[in-house]
Amino acid sequence: MNGVLRVPASDVLDDYAAALERGWSPDNLRPQVAQEQLTAIKADPQAFLSRMDDREAKGPPVTLPDGSQVPRLPSLKRWIWQDGFCGSIGLRWQPGTDALPPTCLGHFGYAVVPWRRRRGLATKALIEMLPIARRIGLRRVDPTASAGNDASIGVIEKAGGKYIQTFVTPAALGAARDVLYRIDL
């Protein structure tokens, strides 16, 4: 396999679940997502996998860090894979526009398991997601990172991101300092 992205599938779901069981979470704003996903996998593995590609936003509302909920955006997720499960990356968008609502900080969310970090996998995954975003119809994507997260900022810059601004996230997302980048597709 040349790339690092893999469509989530039942033949490797146990690897994903094992990472969750080790304490990794695909959501850096809500670590409890790991336990929520383990529960969903145990209840109905196929339903869980079907939500990994939700281009019509049919899934349940998204719970924000403050507990409030917002409508789900169309999205798709890919697993980062290199000699085993390494993490996940998701792409979300709003139909008909490149803009996102204020409760969605960026077009991408990615997380690499701690035991596979610092190997360039997130950068490769983000670069591989860009043609997918283009095929969906986006003309640009706006990745974000926490202002102090040098590793994530490096991933975005290596993927071609150009710094736009530093901003404070909405209160529902923690009122933290983040940085906004842009990648023209």
Describe the overall structure.
The protein has 185 residues and is an alpha+beta fold. It is built from 5 helices and 11 strands; from the N terminus they run βαααββββββαββαββ. The model has no long low-confidence stretch (mean pLDDT 95).
Brief summary of the model shown:
This protein has helices at 13-21, 33-43, 45-50, 121-136, 150-158; strands at residues 5-6, 53-54, 62-63, 69-70, 75-81, 85-92, 108-112, 140-141, 144-146, 162-168, 177-184. It is an alpha+beta fold and 185 residues long.
Percent helix among the residues?
Answer: 25-40%
What does the main sheet amount to? 5 strands, antiparallel
Total helical segments = 5
SS class: alpha+beta
Low-confidence stretches: none
Topology:
Layout: E1 5-6, H1 13-21, H2 33-43, H3 45-50, E2 53-54, E3 62-63, E4 69-70, E5 75-81, E6 85-92, E7 108-112, H4 121-136, E8 140-141, E9 144-146, H5 150-158, E10 162-168, E11 177-184
Antiparallel strand pairs: 1-5, 2-5, 3-4, 5-6, 6-7, 8-11, 9-11, 10-11
